[in-house]
Amino acid sequence: MPEFIVEWLNQNDIFTAMTLMEYWDGLVTTVQLVFLSLVIGLVVAVPLAILRTVKNPFVSGPIWLYTYLFRGTPLLIQLYIIYYGVAQIPGIQDTFWWTIFREPFYPALLAFTLNTAAYTTEIIRGAIVATPHGEIEAAKAYGMNWAMRIRRIILPSAARRAVQAYANEVIFMLHASAIASVVTIVDLTGAARNIYSRFYAPFDAFIFVALCYMALTFMLVFAFRKLENHLLRHQRPVSS
Amino acid sequence: MKKLMIAATTALAVMAGSAQAQDRDLRIAFDVPYEPFEYRSDDGELTGFEVELAEAMCEEMQANCEFVIQAWDGMIPGLLARKFDLIMSSMSITEERAERVNFSEPYYITPGGWFARDNFNTDVTNMDAMADKTVGVQRGTTMDTYVTENMGGTVNIKRYTTAEDMVLDLEGQRLDVVFVDYPVGEQTILNREGFKEVGEPVKLGQGVGVAMRKRDRDLTKEVNAALKTLKEDGTYDDIMKKYFSYDIKI
C-alpha cells in the first residue's frame, strides 16, 4: 500500500487494515451471492418465460402462480421462510440436505434466485409478447417451426427489448442483497453492522459501505450501457 | 405505566411547595424482550427488573417518566439524537461506549453463560476441541467482544441481532453453542426441553449502568444519587428478589 494510505490508516480508529479486510470479505460474499443468484435466475427465467407465453393453461398457469407469489411477497419474508422454515422440518438435520441448508449462504442464494427468476421471467415474457407480428409471420413464411422461430427470431428480438428493464433488476438485486445480513451472512452490510456495533460509529461504517454499493452499481450501469450499445446498434442514427 | 404516572404526579403535588420539585419529563429506552430485565407481561404491560427499577428511580428523582421501546442496534444513536434521555436496557459499561455516552455507577452485573443442546459434550474452554464449533452471540454485546477476542481465530462466530433468532438457530442445529447473558439464557433456553448449560459462567466487564448523553452531567449525578438511595433503603433488594434467585447487585 502507498505510504500515505498506511499513515492515514494508522491514525484512524475505525478504518484499520483489519476492518478493511472485513469489508473486503463482505464485498466478496455480496458479489458471489448476487452474481450466482442472477446467473442461475436468468438461466431458469428464459425457459419459464417462453413456457409462460404458451397457450396451454396447464403449462403457463403454474409459472404464472410462481411469479405471482414471488413478486407479491417481500424478499425478506421469503428469506425468513426459507432460512428458518427449512430448519423446522422434522428430521432434516439427519439428511444430506442439511449439509447445504445448515450454512446461511445457500438458503439466501435459493431465496434470491427464486425471487430474481420470478421478476426476470416477467421481464422476458413482456419482451416476448411485444414481438412484432410481422417478424413472426415472416418467420412462418420461411417455413420455420416453433422452436426455430423462438431461437432465431423471438429470443434475440426479445433480448434487445428486455435488456434495459433487466439492468434495473440486476441493480435492485444488488441492493436487495443487503438483507442477507439478517441471517448471519457477513456480506457488505453485515460487515458494516459488525464494525458499527464494535465502534458505535454508524456514519463512518454505513457511509463507507454505501460508497461500496454505489461503486458496484456504477460498474453495473457502465457494463449494461456497453451491452445496450452493442445490442441496439441497429437503432443508432447513421450519422453518429 | 398509568400507576407510575399517578404516583409521580402525586409525588409532585406533595412536593409542590418545595423548591427542589421539578416538573420535568424523562424518556427511558428499553429493548424488549430481554427477560427478565424488560419484557411484556401476558397482558401486554411493560415489566421486568430494569423497568421496575426505572419506575422506582423516577419516583426517587420526582420525574415524569415515559418508556420508549428501541431496538438494540439503534440505542446509542437514538440517545444522541435525543429520541430519549436515558438507556436502562442492560447496557454493559465499556470503554468504547464511554467515549460516546456518560454512564452512571453500575446497578447490576451478570455473567455470560454457555448454553447448548443436551447432546453437546465439548469443553468450551478447550480451544482444540472447540476448533470446528459454531458459536452464536448477540452482535455488539460484551459476550460478542469476549468470544471475538478470545476465540476469534478458532471457532466460527455467528452474530445475531436478537436472542430469539439465535435460540432458533441453536434449536435448528445451525449453532453448536451460544454464549449469552446468563439470565437471558436461563429464561429463554434452559426452560425449554433439550437444552442445558455447559461450562462455567464467565464474569464480564464492569457491570451495567444507565447511559446518558455526555452533556447531561447533572442528570448523571442525580441518577447516581437515586440509585444509591434505592440500593441502601432496600427497594433495590425487593425488586431484585422478585426476578432473581441469585445476587446481581453491585
UniProtKB/TrEMBL annotation, chain A:
Record's subcellular location: Cell inner membrane; Cell membrane
Keywords (A to Z) from UniProt: Amino-acid transport, Cell inner membrane, Cell membrane, Membrane, Transmembrane, Transmembrane helix, Transport
Record-level GO BP terms: amino acid transport
Keyword Transmembrane helix: yes
Major localisation: membrane
Residues that span the membrane, as ranges: 27-51, 63-85, 105-124, 170-193, 205-224
Residue ranges annotated for the ABC transmembrane type-1 domain, each copy included: 27-224
GO cellular component, one term: ATP-binding cassette (ABC) transporter complex
Keyword Membrane recorded: yes
Membrane topology: Multi-pass membrane protein
Gene Ontology terms, MF aspect: transmembrane transporter activity
Record family assignment: Belongs to the binding-protein-dependent transport system permease family. HisMQ subfamily.
UniProt name for this protein: Arginine ABC transporter permease protein ArtM
From TrEMBL, chain B:
Matching SMART domains: PBPb
Signal peptide: 1-21
Cellular component annotations (GO), alphabetically ordered: cell envelope
Keyword match Zinc: no
InterPro entries: SBP_3_CS (IPR018313), Solute-binding_3/MltF_N (IPR001638)
Superkingdom of the organism of origin: Bacteria
Main location: other
Record domain Solute-binding protein family 3/N-terminal: where: 25-247
Family under the similarity heading: Belongs to the bacterial solute-binding protein 3 family.
Name used for this protein in its record: Amino acid ABC transporter substrate-binding protein (PAAT family)
